[in-house]
Amino acid sequence: MPNTKSPRTTDALQHRLSVLTSGPQRDALTTGLRGIEKESLRVTHDSVLAMTPHPRALGSALTHPSLTTDYSEALLELITPAEHDASLALEQLDTLHRFVYSRLGDEILWNNSMPALLPDDDQIPIARYGSSNIGKLKYVYRVGLALRYGRTMQCIAGIHYNYSLNEEVWRLLHADQQSTASAVDFQSERYLALIRNFRRTSWLLMYLFGASPALDRRFLRNRPHTLDVFDADTFYRPYATSLRMSDLGYSNTTGQSALHADYDTLPGYLEALAEAVSQPYPQYEAIGTKRNGEWIQINTNVLQIENEFYSTIRPKRVTYSGERPLHALAARGVQYVEVRCMDIDPFEPIGISLEAARFLDAYLLVCALDDSALLPPPAYTEANKNFCLVTTEGRKPGLELIRDGQPVAMVDWANELLDRIAIAAATLDTIHGDDSHARAVATQRAKLADPSLTPSARVLQTMRDRQQGFLAFGLAQSEAHAAFFRAHPLDAKSTEEFTKLATESLAAQEKLEREEVGSFDAFVAAYRAYTLNRFSV
Fold first, then answer.
1. CATH for 11-244+338-507 (3.30.590.20, 3.30.530.20, 3.10.580.10, 2.60.40.10)
2. Is the dihedral of CA 419, 341, 194, 260 positive or negative?
3. Which of 44, 415, 482, 507 could be disulfide-bonded to 108 (CB atoms 3.0-4.6 Å)?
4. In this predicted model, what pLDDT tens digit does every residue of 304-350 receive, in sequence order?
């Protein structure tokens, strides 16, 4: 019978680290890839959502590799290339911010996860991607999201951290374990093991890095809530770490509320998601796919597409042009994971510190190398409850979580996890020849001993010290970061390169639209049939 309890020994971790560091390939541990995606709302200097189109000077949101939009026309997404070291990814993110600010006019980027002052829900501008079929599909998908979840929720922003280990790591472990699985299947199994460990313990990230304990009262649209009053326009929870990752913005009546992804095997995961993108949901069927002849949803299924599934972490694979994510995973296995639960750090100009990235690298390495129990429904539910509890009550003195059905002090569990993460950090530092990972772990230990050091506590304390509500705090931080970037513009050569890239992306979109063949109806039909045919399991 498979073990479904979460392991707490470091034996497996230490053995695998020894395997990976005892030979000539020891550098493989430091040559995986890191990529960062940061979402930021464009706003005016009075904290109001910008109603202007995506700046043409930034290029095409459809075809630009690094500057696009997420849900709203005003929700800018900055995407770094994949780099071998987190420091390089952060440098790229800094460079992207500098270019954006050189083309942003009088607007600024809102450097908080919870939104600035939004217009009425139906007035929030949905992102547009031009007249090509794929551009129209992206727009219709977003219209569907508005009908299912509302536009307001889609304006919440965050940091996505993409993480992979060098494939040499998996080759060495494959040989050490004498696994009979193929190299591709073994790698996928280990990434799913990482995800299971992450799902059990990622509440720790919410405590350490959650930075959204307050929000503007108008965000709630007069919905019932249990938040406390901070001032006339600000609601908060006194011990909250991340209201962004709580269930405040998400309706429990949506089609995916009962969707439990299967992280035990890749076929199980693919089957669960494939069913969700092909199974009709009555409430969405009542809405339909067209209104007055115009498309309003791609389909009426539980999920329109795979990426609609809201998860704190996803298994990923780079897709070919026109390829669906599920097909890429099925055909070539898991290539990396996308960590999606990190709040924007309002105290950092680019929204994330190098110290946080160093800690993430050590933490994710532990998740990848430690033993990983299966995650049956009861364990899945337990993990979700722990995560949600820490988002709303994480700094509460004496807080207890549930581990394998038994209560445990959050601080005790967190310190056990940090002990393991410290082992991985020390290993990475030995290879790097510095102590940056160990220092990152030490900083997080201090937050456990003193909750006032957490970003969420710092946000609330800063608001109190300055006598600011959420919007005033968010604007002050965002204005300061805008001034920083505008005072440190890009050099002429880099500016010229980004300008050229923007021009090329616009030309690529225009070429796509000019050479488009076939109707949009036919395009949608083919898109939907592809999913059903490929995954009719």
1. 3.30.590.20
2. positive
3. 482
4. 999 999 899 999 999 998 888 999 999 999 999 999 999 999 999 99
CB 162 within 8 A of CB 34: yes
Distance CA 282, CA 145 (A): 16
Alpha-carbon distances of 86 from 113, 314, 338, 351, rounded to whole Å: 21, 19, 14, 14
- Sorted by sequence, the CB contacts under 8 Å of residue 107 that are 6+ apart come out as 42, 43, 44, 50, 52
Gyration radius of the chain's alpha carbons: 23
For 79, which DSSP code?
Answer: E
Distance CA 457, CA 438 (A): 23
Whether the Cβ atoms of residue 138 and residue 521 lie closer than 8 Å to each other:
no
Closest CA to 317 of 338, 335, 305: 335
The arithmetic mean of pLDDT across residues 419-448, rounded, is 97
Token readout for 286 is: 């009542």
- By the 10 Å C-beta count (0-12 exposed, 13-18 middle, 19+ buried), 491 is classed as exposed
Distance CA 194, CA 130 (A): 38
Q: Which residue has the tokens 């992102």?
A: 127
- Span 55-106, pLDDT tens digits: 999 999 999 999 999 999 999 999 999 999 999 999 999 999 999 999 999 9
The dihedrals phi and psi of 122, each to the nearest 5 degrees, come to -75, -5
* Distance, CA of 154 to CA of 333 (rounded, Å): 30
Q: How far is CA 420 from CA 1, 175, 383, 415, 425, in A?
A: 27, 24, 19, 9, 9
**Three-class secondary structure assignment of 186-229:** HHHHHHHHHHHHHHHHCHHHHHHHCCECEEEHHHHCCCCCCCEE
